[in-house]
Design a protein that fits this description.
By secondary structure, the protein is an alpha+beta fold. It has one domain. About 25% of the residues lie in helices and about 35% in strands. About 25% of the residues are buried. The model has no long low-confidence stretch (mean pLDDT about 85).
Length: about 140
Protein backbone atom coordinates (compact mmCIF):
# COMPACT_ATOMS: atom_id res chain seq x y z
CA UNK A 1 0.00 0.00 0.00
CA UNK A 2 1.10 3.57 -0.76
CA UNK A 3 -0.44 7.01 -0.22
CA UNK A 4 -0.14 10.34 -2.02
CA UNK A 5 0.43 13.72 -0.38
CA UNK A 6 -0.64 16.94 -2.14
CA UNK A 7 -0.73 20.66 -1.36
CA UNK A 8 -4.23 22.09 -1.37
CA UNK A 9 -3.41 25.37 -3.13
CA UNK A 10 -5.79 28.30 -2.69
CA UNK A 11 -7.60 26.79 0.29
CA UNK A 12 -6.96 28.12 3.81
CA UNK A 13 -9.02 25.74 5.98
CA UNK A 14 -10.38 22.21 5.99
CA UNK A 15 -13.90 23.65 6.07
CA UNK A 16 -13.15 25.63 2.91
CA UNK A 17 -11.94 22.45 1.18
CA UNK A 18 -15.08 20.58 2.27
CA UNK A 19 -17.29 23.39 0.95
CA UNK A 20 -15.38 23.54 -2.35
CA UNK A 21 -15.70 19.78 -2.81
CA UNK A 22 -19.42 19.74 -2.01
CA UNK A 23 -20.11 22.59 -4.48
CA UNK A 24 -18.45 20.65 -7.30
CA UNK A 25 -19.49 17.10 -6.46
CA UNK A 26 -22.33 17.12 -9.01
CA UNK A 27 -19.83 17.73 -11.84
CA UNK A 28 -17.83 14.63 -11.00
CA UNK A 29 -20.87 12.41 -10.66
CA UNK A 30 -21.74 13.15 -14.28
CA UNK A 31 -18.28 12.03 -15.43
CA UNK A 32 -18.01 8.94 -13.24
CA UNK A 33 -21.65 8.09 -12.46
CA UNK A 34 -21.20 7.94 -8.70
CA UNK A 35 -20.72 10.05 -5.57
CA UNK A 36 -16.98 10.75 -5.82
CA UNK A 37 -14.51 13.61 -5.68
CA UNK A 38 -11.94 13.99 -8.44
CA UNK A 39 -8.58 15.72 -8.53
CA UNK A 40 -6.79 15.99 -11.87
CA UNK A 41 -3.00 15.82 -12.00
CA UNK A 42 -0.59 15.70 -14.92
CA UNK A 43 1.04 12.35 -14.32
CA UNK A 44 -0.20 8.86 -13.56
CA UNK A 45 1.58 7.44 -10.50
CA UNK A 46 3.97 4.64 -11.45
CA UNK A 47 2.98 2.87 -8.23
CA UNK A 48 -0.67 2.80 -9.29
CA UNK A 49 -1.27 -0.79 -8.18
CA UNK A 50 -0.17 0.07 -4.63
CA UNK A 51 -2.50 3.09 -4.43
CA UNK A 52 -5.81 2.17 -6.08
CA UNK A 53 -8.41 1.03 -3.57
CA UNK A 54 -5.81 0.94 -0.77
CA UNK A 55 -4.21 4.34 -0.30
CA UNK A 56 -5.41 7.85 0.46
CA UNK A 57 -4.54 11.34 -0.67
CA UNK A 58 -3.31 13.42 2.29
CA UNK A 59 -4.13 17.12 1.92
CA UNK A 60 -1.69 19.81 3.10
CA UNK A 61 -3.72 22.92 3.94
CA UNK A 62 -1.89 26.10 4.97
CA UNK A 63 1.33 24.19 5.65
CA UNK A 64 -0.28 21.42 7.74
CA UNK A 65 -1.47 17.92 6.81
CA UNK A 66 -5.09 18.11 8.02
CA UNK A 67 -7.06 15.34 6.36
CA UNK A 68 -7.09 12.48 3.91
CA UNK A 69 -9.46 11.04 1.35
CA UNK A 70 -9.47 7.36 0.36
CA UNK A 71 -8.44 6.82 -3.27
CA UNK A 72 -10.87 4.55 -5.07
CA UNK A 73 -9.01 4.45 -8.38
CA UNK A 74 -6.79 6.35 -10.80
CA UNK A 75 -8.16 7.00 -14.28
CA UNK A 76 -6.36 8.05 -17.43
CA UNK A 77 -7.91 11.24 -18.80
CA UNK A 78 -7.32 13.94 -21.40
CA UNK A 79 -7.22 17.63 -20.45
CA UNK A 80 -8.60 20.65 -22.36
CA UNK A 81 -5.39 20.90 -24.44
CA UNK A 82 -5.63 17.26 -25.49
CA UNK A 83 -2.78 16.15 -23.19
CA UNK A 84 -2.89 12.94 -21.19
CA UNK A 85 -3.37 13.30 -17.44
CA UNK A 86 -4.62 11.38 -14.41
CA UNK A 87 -7.88 11.74 -12.51
CA UNK A 88 -7.52 10.74 -8.86
CA UNK A 89 -10.99 9.45 -8.00
CA UNK A 90 -11.63 9.65 -4.25
CA UNK A 91 -14.35 8.77 -1.81
CA UNK A 92 -16.16 11.93 -0.69
CA UNK A 93 -15.23 11.23 2.96
CA UNK A 94 -12.82 13.75 4.47
CA UNK A 95 -11.04 11.98 7.32
CA UNK A 96 -9.37 14.39 9.74
CA UNK A 97 -5.83 13.45 10.68
CA UNK A 98 -3.61 14.44 13.56
CA UNK A 99 -2.25 17.74 12.19
CA UNK A 100 1.36 17.61 11.07
CA UNK A 101 3.35 20.56 9.69
CA UNK A 102 4.64 20.01 6.15
CA UNK A 103 6.92 22.30 4.17
CA UNK A 104 5.89 23.27 0.62
CA UNK A 105 6.64 21.14 -2.43
CA UNK A 106 5.42 21.04 -6.02
CA UNK A 107 3.04 18.49 -7.47
CA UNK A 108 2.30 15.39 -5.44
CA UNK A 109 4.56 12.94 -3.65
CA UNK A 110 4.29 9.36 -2.49
CA UNK A 111 3.68 9.00 1.24
CA UNK A 112 4.70 5.74 2.88
CA UNK A 113 2.01 4.49 5.31
CA UNK A 114 4.54 4.46 8.18
CA UNK A 115 5.07 8.21 7.64
CA UNK A 116 1.38 9.14 7.37
CA UNK A 117 -0.29 10.91 10.29
CA UNK A 118 -2.90 8.88 12.17
CA UNK A 119 -6.57 9.69 11.87
CA UNK A 120 -7.65 12.16 14.52
CA UNK A 121 -10.16 9.75 16.05
CA UNK A 122 -7.43 7.10 16.44
CA UNK A 123 -5.11 9.60 18.07
CA UNK A 124 -7.24 9.83 21.20
CA UNK A 125 -9.02 13.04 20.19
CA UNK A 126 -12.79 13.37 20.12
CA UNK A 127 -14.70 15.63 17.75
CA UNK A 128 -15.48 19.20 18.71
CA UNK A 129 -12.55 21.56 19.07
CA UNK A 130 -9.89 18.92 19.41
CA UNK A 131 -8.40 19.60 15.97
CA UNK A 132 -7.08 22.94 17.21
CA UNK A 133 -5.60 21.33 20.33
CA UNK A 134 -4.03 18.60 18.20
CA UNK A 135 -2.49 21.21 15.89
CA UNK A 136 -0.97 23.11 18.83
CA UNK A 137 0.44 19.89 20.29
CA UNK A 138 1.89 18.99 16.87
CA UNK A 139 3.57 22.41 16.61
CA UNK A 140 5.17 21.78 19.99
CA UNK A 141 6.35 18.35 18.84
CA UNK A 142 4.26 16.56 21.46
CA UNK A 143 2.30 14.42 18.99
Amino acid sequence: MMHIIKLCVGVATLEELESYREERAHWWGADYGENVHVHRTRTMPKRRAEIEGQGSIYWVISGVIRCRQPILRLAEAVDEQGLGCCDIIMAPDMVRTIPRPKSPFQGWRYLDPKDAPADLEHGGFADGGSAELAEELAKLGLI
